[in-house]
Fold these 3 entries.
Entry 1:
Amino acid sequence: MRDFLRQVIEERTPKKGKEKIDEKVYESEIRPTGKKVRIALYDSFASTPQIIELKENEIREFMDLLSQKTYQYSHDRGGKMPYVVIKEIVENLIHANFNEVVVSIYKDGNVIRISDQGPGITDKKKAILPGFTTAKEDMKRYIRGVGSGLPIAKESIELSGGSMNIDDNLSSGTVITLSLPTYGYKEVSPKKGRVKSSQQISLSKRQSKVLFLITELSKAGPSKVASELNISLSTAYRELVFLEGIGFIKSDKGGKRSLTKRGLEFLENFFSTFKV
């Protein structure tokens, strides 16, 4: 499962999508029907959301666009949701034929709720296990269709310290909630705050190697870190998530990490302890 997850994360980095989608016709039960997907952007759980609508045209390009826009809007608000998680959940909407899909993105971008009014998921425990699938032949033109999507999403978000919950929608369909912890990076005085200064944080030998590598390369993603340090992709990803969580590195839209001011401060302090 881990090896398969590595391959998926490698393949699934966000790419620039087309704003205008060319309409094509397919002999399929899930061919375009002009349905709309709504993205709701919230400033708080109690606020009135900003609504953005996307129209369904060609299925493959539509799924890519919805994934990219969800990733973009969540990260614009400060979220850290991995692209592979969003992509797998969006592709799973094909089982609902994109019926009444709503993507809700909440404050800080680290809570995303994706709902539909399709047939729903009867056995939620089996749905997150590899190999259980209801994908029909026409769906397999657009997705793998082997029951790997939800398990990959669940494992990926848990590697980031988050969670994925699956619930029934009100009358029919499914609601999937993706949540990541929100970290605070703001420096505060020792008397008033709990956030440690960069000098007070201790890194493991492997975490230090990852940080040094990113400093040397300027930017690096999980696959590059795994290759250079001869570690598994899941381990590289976990260490990057940790370093990002304490504010030493930051990620761009392509998933590559670079050093932050806080990370540079840590390195300067680290090297200052060595006498020449």
Note: Residues 17-29, 184-196 have pLDDT under 50 and may be disordered.
Entry 2:
Amino acid sequence: MNADRNVSNNAKNRQIVLNLYEKGIFDIKDAINQVADRLNISKHTVYLYIRQFKSGDFQGQDK
């Protein structure tokens, strides 16, 4: 996914957050802040993505 220039950064970030969420990374203290810093997005965006995954409103792939 990282090499595909046709996929937006937003979609890449959503997919990364989803993968980390599925692996339980966000159960670790301060993981949300660390991921947000690495992806250059706000922690609020990470929380938004997680809420969307939980509600089934995930739009990770741009087609």
Note: Residues 9-55 form one domain.
Entry 3:
Amino acid sequence: MSLKSMLRELKEMKDGIGNISKRGGESKLWRSRARSHVAPDISKWANLPPELLLDIIQRVEESETAWPARAVVVFCATVCRSWREITKEIVKTPEQCGRLTFPISLKQPGPRESPIQCYIRRDRATSTYLLFYGLVPFEGESDKLLLAARKVRRATCTDFVISLAADDFSRASNNYVGKLKTNFLGTKFTIHDSQPPCDSIIPSTSRSNLRFHFKQVSPRLPTCNYIIGIITYELNVLRARGPRRMHCILHSIPVSAIQEGDIVPTPSTSPYSFNEQFSPLTSSRGNEPSIDTSSPSVPATPVCFVVPGEPLTLKNKAPRWHE
């Protein structure tokens, strides 16, 4: 079997197209199972020799460097456990290869030489902000969606709920990433993560509070209660309409990370599913976004996770008007 035909069959297994999809009423059931089920190790694909499997995935990773073609690499990770482990071993972090592959790539450091270019599409009617991969939109709405945010106004603040899907903002969903919380004046933005950052520690507090926080943490039900950064703006006469001085403190990244030769804390394990979270998503149109702002397991006091050492502080240049 050639490599091209093998990849075509893998894609059919992922999308649920084939003989089963021709049975009419069973097609939807097959597609739902294909998205949420990873093939067991007893499948015929798990019996491939490790050397052959390594060579296949290496060729796929080297040939498919851009989206949406890079979705084939994600499909390889959903075949079975042996395929998934080898794919995770071959695929490098964005800092090393400059490419985004899995959902965990969005939380890993990017390349130091050149930034990863993205653009934001705003929908004022639904208060939704969509972050797409690339510098300019592609034709046919085949852009790769990275993150989506939904603006939720409250009495004293405003929350921007962040998700991996444009139509799912529920805290109980695996698509849930975190939120950005602003104060009443819009001068302070607190970044909350649904999962504790890499190599983080909890500030000193009472033993009862520590036990309470750890019991509430669940990979299946994110609590969005881990503060990883704070962004503040200085007020001026024109408030948000004029240039403002900005300060950004990242508690999850030490200041030594920006020095040459140092390593940035990089998470390697992902709480997100390979099957659902980073599959190709073309258009954001469709069903009305669902959002669940209430969660019984959210502690009253957020936990601020910090890494050992001084946190990284970023300051913008002196703001001025464009001539």
Note: The first helix runs from residue 3 to 15.
